[in-house]
Specification:
458 residues, Aldehyde Dehydrogenase, Chain A, domain 2, seven-stranded mixed β-sheet
């Protein structure tokens, strides 16, 4: 059995039956049989109808879904409502993808040997999808895996994070209520990690969608069956450059939102802030004042802005990293414990470049501030880690904006905005150790497709 607890007070929510080896085999066999039966594939209009109905059902249950996110995941209710709205829009976007989902014409007759032929490509479902999701957006991340699979016509088996399975299970219930035939969308709650790996690496899996830690994701990729494609979404230590020409009135709120949203448990959360020396003292003072006003506590209360970390051991880990940085000379502003599960937001000024808070993903309510004098130096330090996901620069100088945007590493560079900005239809891709292939609903649907070329000789 899997016990599920509220993130904030660790109150027991429910116990769920887990799946053993026999259950896994049954689920894989069902999904693979559905895919191999080409005549039984769901038609596009059937899948569109399910997605439209699903969006309607989720809309009527918006408050219920948001409260579930807040309870099991610890995300403040105001942000959980936003996540629910994004998830609903993501389902609608998955349906819209199908209206433009198509192949392309391949030119022929360009050489004598290709004369007298016409060629084009069509898109087909790639096969059975194995999805492994993460805790920090327990509804919307599942939508990013389930929605594209439905749009692409793939049978999918999804494994939610063991700390936050209820949002995923409820979503799958609604998918079936919306009319999805049995077997096309299944959940998997493994009894142990061995079964989770067996699930991802089974030879019947055509595509692995993994959202979670880099250590686990890269390990699974190394064990995939021959021919299995994958997309990995990990994390980073997102850098922000605040140029000397930046308008601090436009900087503070985005930094606070990007750094402390969901207590920093976001893969592109603002972590390393490189500020020009001319603005450093002013930025530190203003950021400290704003962070001190953040309301910390029970995520189910509408006024809460910063809730708990997902597990008590994560509060211990983050606290130890902060203490290590302070012992090595960093100046701490704010911070400390609110409870066994919850940390007060913290700012660290000038931690060592080799400290854990400077080199690893914190995944907690902590931001770090470093001074710089030359833009070249700030960019080099921002790019110095083996992670590169999203970065940002704040400036009123168009030349600085474009230079930084072109030279900063990562799948996206935000100008005059925080690193955690995302829309669900934009490409979302980590570089280097931060990920592999491209996320975002239309892009994931494309990754879950196989392109077949047809050539007709006249």
């Amino acid at each position: 059995m899997l016990d599920v607890f509220q993130a904030y007070d660790r109150a027991h929510m429910t116990s769920i039956e887990t799946d053993g080896a026999e259950a896994l085999e049954a689920k894989l066999a069902i999904a693979y049989r559905l895919f191999r039966d080409r005549g039984g594939w769901l038609k596009p209009h059937q899948r569109i109808a399910v997605l439209h109905k699903l969006a309607e059902l989720m809309t009527t249950r918006r408050d219920e879904l948001a409260l579930l996110i807040a309870r099991e995941g610890g995300k403040p209710l105001t942000d959980a409502l936003i996540e629910t709205d994004r998830a609903i829009d993501g389902i609608q976007n998955s349906a819209e993808v199908m209206r433009t989902r198509a192949g392309v014409e391949i030119p022929m007759g360009l050489t004598p040997a290709s004369d007298g032929r016409r060629a084009w490509t069509i898109l087909e479902p790639i096969g059975v999808v194995a999805a492994i999701s993460a805790f920090n957006h327990p509804l919307n991340l599942c939508v990013h895996q389930l929605g594209p699979a439905i749009a692409a016509g793939c049978p999918i088996i999804i494994k939610p994070a063991p700390t936050t399975p209820l949002s995923c299970l409820r979503l799958v219930e609604l998918i079936h209520e919306a009319g999805m035939p049995e077997g096309w969308v299944q959940t998997f709650l493994p009894a142990d990690n061995y079964l989770a790996e067996a699930f991802a690496t089974d030879q019947r899996i055509a595509f692995l969608s993994f959202i979670g830690s880099a250590k686990v994701g890269w390990h699974l990729r190394s064990r995939l069956a021959p021919g299995t494609r994958c997309a990995l979404e990990h994390g980073g230590a997102a850098p922000v450059i605040v140029d000397r020409d930046a308008d601090l009135d436009r900087v503070i709120e985005p930094l606070v939102k990007g750094g402390y949203y969901h207590a920093g448990q976001v893969c592109v959360s603002v972590q390393r802030i490189f500020v020009h020396g001319a603005l450093k003292d002013a930025l530190v003072d203003r950021l400290a004042q704003r962070v001190a006003k953040l309301r910390v506590g029970d995520p189910t209360r509408p006024e809460t802005e910063v809730g708990p970390l997902i597990l008590p051991r994560e509060t211990d880990r983050v606290s130890s990293w902060v203490e290590q940085a302070i012992r090595a000379g960093a100046r701490q502003i704010g911070g400390g414990r609110h409870s066994a599960t919850t940390l007060k937001p913290c700012v660290l000024v000038d931690p060592l470049e080799e400290a854990k808070v400077s080199t690893l993903e914190i995944f907690g309510p902590v931001t770090c501030i470093y001074g710089y004098s030359l833009l070249d130096d700030a960019i080099a330090r921002a790019n110095s880690l083996p992670f590169a996901f999203q970065s940002s620069v704040f400036t009123s100088n168009i030349d600085v904006a474009f230079e930084a945007a072109e030279r900063l590493d990562g799948g996206a560079v935000l100008i005059n905005d925080h690193t955690a900005f995302r829309t669900d239809w934009m490409p979302f891709a980590g570089w280097r150790q931060s990920g592999y292939n491209v996320g975002g609903i239309p892009h994931t649907a494309r990754e879950m497709s196989a392109e077949k070329m047809l050539v007709v000789k006249r």
